[in-house]
Design brief:
Keywords: Cell membrane, Membrane, Protein transport, Translocation, Transmembrane, Transmembrane helix, Transport. The chain is mostly helical. The chain has one domain. It has four helices and no strands.
Length: about 80
């Protein structure tokens, strides 16, 4: 059980990292520093961004659930 949670945790970490990097910058952060602010008005639609937000939140919930599950397994044994 712990091995399965660790594998799911690893996969969700990689997927969540990719989804966060796909998000468009909203403000004067690093994305606008390298020219991302100019292209941000031309790329993507609001439906795609909303779906990306939903998938990112869902992946984050899976990630948190795996961490809590692994901590419970460690605390109370197999």
């Amino acid at each position: 059980m712990a091995l399965a949670l660790e594998i799911i945790l690893l996969i969700s970490c990689v997927i969540m990292t990719l989804f966060v990097l796909l998000h468009r910058g909203k403000g004067g952060g690093l994305s606008s520093l390298f020219g991302g602010g100019v292209q941000s008005n031309l790329s993507g639609s609001t439906v795609v961004e909303k779906n990306l937000d939903r998938v990112t939140i869902f992946t984050g919930i899976i990630w948190i659930a795996c961490i809590v599950g692994l901590n419970l397994i460690q605390a109370y044994g197999n």
